[in-house]
């Protein structure tokens, strides 16, 4: 996009606008001046009531005004300005897509669902006042379902920001089973951080009793970490000169806050990032392709609206890949339960339908389309991604 | 059909997005990313057009003001100098002084008008600068957040949730990028229409007459029809007929059928049971008028017909929609694992892939040539990196996370997937 060109075109508009505005005001002053001159002339004439004198002054005034013809000048200024504006409009219409709703399908987006999504998004971002304001304006009281859990989450995050791990530790311990099932060592990491805090700001004694109380009971699971922490005790007061100096890095707080948020959301059955953000970002990614598709396809409006599957892929980046999708290289169809991917002995993968087609009968071996190796149907095994 | 469309897509003008990508994968990604950003900027027509239309409107009204006043003053002077009867000097002095006062008033109004124009010019410029700031790689995430908020503010304004819109614009610090004042103009008209008051809407039509005419808008006609129906409802039949003669007749040539249908209501009472005419007396007619006004308003200002949120959300859901999203095992990170999104996406088409795109169940990372898939004896597939890590931590043993079966790393087989 040639932003420079657009900015240049706009600079011209801006210049013309200023010129037009100041010239118009100047014209007003000029007219005013002429009339004031006429008034002065009238007031200084000796023969106060002389008709022809009066007429002469008025005629002079009229002629003067016609001479520099303010109306024509005004019109010219406006015409010029309009031309420059018109050029700028053309530049924008060329540089931007003037109608991005061309590919829009006339399906009804249930406004209640959309409002709920928006309200959840606000609460997830921590914008609680805005969420409440929105819910009352939109009149959607049920949309506040996620408010309480996110309030809790932000409360914990806030206390973590103030270097207070109590709430976080409470949450982690009350969810320790879930965390263990999901392979997260959040609780351990919190304890580690707390230990370092106590060591730095409190006494060695308290740090030691902390380890005894919280980490020792589960010592077998923390074979690597406990010796490390005990080692820190030796360098207490000089931790920044010890081999464990990196434990003091403020990064740990940020990373732990992120990890906490991840686990909290996951436990709630929610994604880490706002689903609305992801969906909109995917839309921004994919809309140019959809618009091009709509204009190139030249199909009737009904066909576009009734489409069940896009004929062309929308290339989204890796951030938007949530599923494994297998596409058979031969038939170009997506894998499904009825048509799963099959691994051939040579290592290539085809869909079951392709293999059935290639083998024509179920016992004769067939040649792989990608290498000279042959295989029979029985030698192929189903894959699970 | 697919191939033809594919080729057409590649051949269609694509700005500079089709620059030759270097061989190095990382550089290719950043080129692709830049190209993607450039493409997304092209979608921002509304951002740039709306303040421009607003500016044009102000310029027009300032011009008309000056035109009116100049004409009046010049005519007055011409009349004074052209009249044959003798006027006293006092009279003439008074007249001329009043013209001076009038001009001074015009000067003040033009100064104020000029200030408004300057503010609007500044807003146009701010928008262009904002688009340019996307090149600043450090602030890209902030820019993207601002974009999401802009889309949300647009939705809130269109739904008339003005307080939420103002709140979000302030919180997100995007006031220069939101068109709140433009929507406020519409707010007045919409609220009055909801209160069954047609006057502000008609005034708006008068103010924008030339442009509405250019776009062949029927809004004024529909407002007049409603006014007619209200007269009929109040049993003011004579008034209604005179109203029709004055205000509906000019539209008759192009809208005969519609006009005839409405005028026929004269023959019925407002609580008629005849369905064709009963509907004309329904309060839903006012909702229809509100929608019509909103559409005209958006069109005049260069805004999309649908809220930006709907447009992007639809595109996004289509791009993300796969049959796997509707299964139980769908990853929670996928927006389509949420009930609301699933329902919205139901009537939309599925996305399509031409090549396999695989994601490792364990690490959630893509399985591609940098991280190829490996197959366990039980047919389950995971990424090389994840399995290597597992093997390292478990003395060469692999445990399938989904079935629990154990095998050796050496038993794994490579799969070649294009």
UniProtKB/TrEMBL annotation, chain B:
GO biological process, one term: proteasome-mediated ubiquitin-dependent protein catabolic process
Domain named CTLH: residues: 182-239
One Gene Ontology cellular component annotation held by this UniProt entry: nucleus
Chain intervals annotated as zinc finger (RING-Gid-type): 330-403
The keyword Ribosomal protein belongs to this UniProt entry's keyword annotation: no
Domain RING-Gid-type per the UniProt entry, residue ranges: 330-403
SMART domains assigned: CRA, CTLH
Keyword vocabulary terms for this entry: Cytoplasm, Metal-binding, Zinc, Zinc-finger
Gene Ontology molecular functions: ubiquitin protein ligase activity; zinc ion binding
Compartment(s) where it occurs, according to its Swiss-Prot or TrEMBL record: Cytoplasm
tRNA processing among keywords: no
Protein name: Macrophage erythroblast attacher
Species the sequence originates in: Zingiber officinale (Ginger)
Lineage: Eukaryota, Viridiplantae, Streptophyta, Embryophyta, Tracheophyta
């Amino acid at each position: 996009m040639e932003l420079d060109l657009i900015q240049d075109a706009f600079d011209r508009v801006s210049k013309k606008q200023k010129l037009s505005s100041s010239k118009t005001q100047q014209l007003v002053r000029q007219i005013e001046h002429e009339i004031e001159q006429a008034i002065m002339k009238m007031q200084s004439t000796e023969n106060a009531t002389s008709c022809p004198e009066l007429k002469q002054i008025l005629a002079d005034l009229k002629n003067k005004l016609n001479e520099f013809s303010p109306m024509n000048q005004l019109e010219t200024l406006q015409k010029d300005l309009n031309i420059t504006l018109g050029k700028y409009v053309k530049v924008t219409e060329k540089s931007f897509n003037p109608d991005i709703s061309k590919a829009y399908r006339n399906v009804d987006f249930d406004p209640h669902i959309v409002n709920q999504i928006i309200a959840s998004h606000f609460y997830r971002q921590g914008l609680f006042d805005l969420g409440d304001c929105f819910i009352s304006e939109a009149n959607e009281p049920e949309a506040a379902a996620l408010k309480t859990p996110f309030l809790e989450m932000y409360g914990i995050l806030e206390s973590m920001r103030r270097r207070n791990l109590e709430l976080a530790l409470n949450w982690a311990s009350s969810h320790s089973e879930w965390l263990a099932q999901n392979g997260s060592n959040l609780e351990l990491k919190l304890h580690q951080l707390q230990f370092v805090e106590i060591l730095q700001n409190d006494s060695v004694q308290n740090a030691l009793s902390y380890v005894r109380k919280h980490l020792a009971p589960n010592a077998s699971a923390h074979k690597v970490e406990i010796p490390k922490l005990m080692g820190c005790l030796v360098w207490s007061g000089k931790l920044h000169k010890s081999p464990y100096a990196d434990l003091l890095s403020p990064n740990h707080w940020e990373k732990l806050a992120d990890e906490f948020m991840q686990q909290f959301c996951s436990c709630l059955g929610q994604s880490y990032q706002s689903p609305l953000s992801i969906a909109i970002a995917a839309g921004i990614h994919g809309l140019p392709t959809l618009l091009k598709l709509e204009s190139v396809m030249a199909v009737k409006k009904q066909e576009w609206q009734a489409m069940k599957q896009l004929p062309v892929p929308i290339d989204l980046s890796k951030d938007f890949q949530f599923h494994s999708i297998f596409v058979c290289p031969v038939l170009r169809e997506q894998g499904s339960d009825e048509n799963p991917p099959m691994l051939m002995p040579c290592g290539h993968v085809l869909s079951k339908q392709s293999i059935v087609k290639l083998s024509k009968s179920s016992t004769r071996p067939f040649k792989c389309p990608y290498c000279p190796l042959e295989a029979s149907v029985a030698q192929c095994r189903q894959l699970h991604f | 059909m697919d191939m033809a469309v594919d080729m057409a897509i590649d051949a269609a003008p694509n700005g500079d997005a089709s620059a030759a990508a270097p061989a190095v994968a990382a550089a290719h990604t950043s080129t692709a990313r830049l190209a993607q950003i450039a493409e997304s900027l092209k979608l921002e027509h509304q951002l740039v057009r709306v303040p421009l239309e607003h500016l044009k409107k102000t310029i027009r009204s300032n011009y008309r003001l000056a035109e009116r006043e100049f004409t009046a003053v010049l005519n007055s002077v011409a009349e004074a100098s052209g009249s044959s009867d003798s006027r006293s000097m006092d009279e003439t002095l008074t007249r001329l002084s009043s013209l001076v006062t009038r001009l001074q008033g015009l000067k003040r109004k033009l100064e104020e008008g000029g200030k408004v124009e300057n503010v609007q010019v500044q807003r146009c410029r701010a928008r262009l600068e904002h688009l340019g700031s996307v090149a600043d790689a450090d602030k890209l995430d902030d820019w993207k957040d601002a974009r999401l908020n802009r889309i949300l503010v647009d939705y809130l304004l269109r739904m008339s949730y003005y307080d939420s819109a103002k709140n979000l614009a302030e919180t997100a610090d995007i006031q220069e990028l939101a068109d709140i004042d433009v929507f406020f103009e519409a707010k007045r008209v919409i609220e009055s229409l909801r209160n069954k008051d047609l006057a502000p809407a008609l005034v708006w039509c008068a103010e924008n007459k030339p442009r509405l005419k250019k776009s062949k808008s029927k809004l004024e006609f529909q407002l007049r029809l409603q006014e007619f129906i209200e007269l009929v409802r109040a049993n003011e039949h004579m008034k209604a007929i005179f109203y029709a003669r004055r205000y509906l007749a000019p539209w008759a040539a192009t809208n005969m059928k519609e006009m005839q249908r409405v005028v026929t209501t004269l023959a019925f009472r407002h609580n008629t049971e005849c369905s064709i005419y009963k509907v004309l007396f329904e309060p839903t007619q006012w909702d229809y008028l509100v929608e019509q006004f909103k559409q005209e308003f958006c069109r005049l200002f260069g805004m999309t017909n649908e809220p930006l949120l709907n447009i992007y959300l639809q595109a996004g859901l289509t791009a993300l929609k796969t049959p796997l999203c509707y299964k139980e095992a769908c990853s929670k990170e996928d927006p389509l694992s949420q009930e609301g999104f699933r329902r919205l996406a139901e009537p939309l088409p599925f996305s399509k892939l031409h090549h396999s795109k695989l994601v490792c169940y364990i690490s959630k990372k893509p399985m591609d040539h940098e991280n190829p898939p490996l197959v366990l004896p039980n047919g389950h597939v995971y990424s090389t990196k994840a399995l290597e890590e597992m093997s390292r931590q478990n003395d060469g043993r692999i445990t399938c996370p989904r079935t629990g079966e154990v095998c050796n790393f050496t038993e794994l087989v490579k799969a070649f997937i294009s």
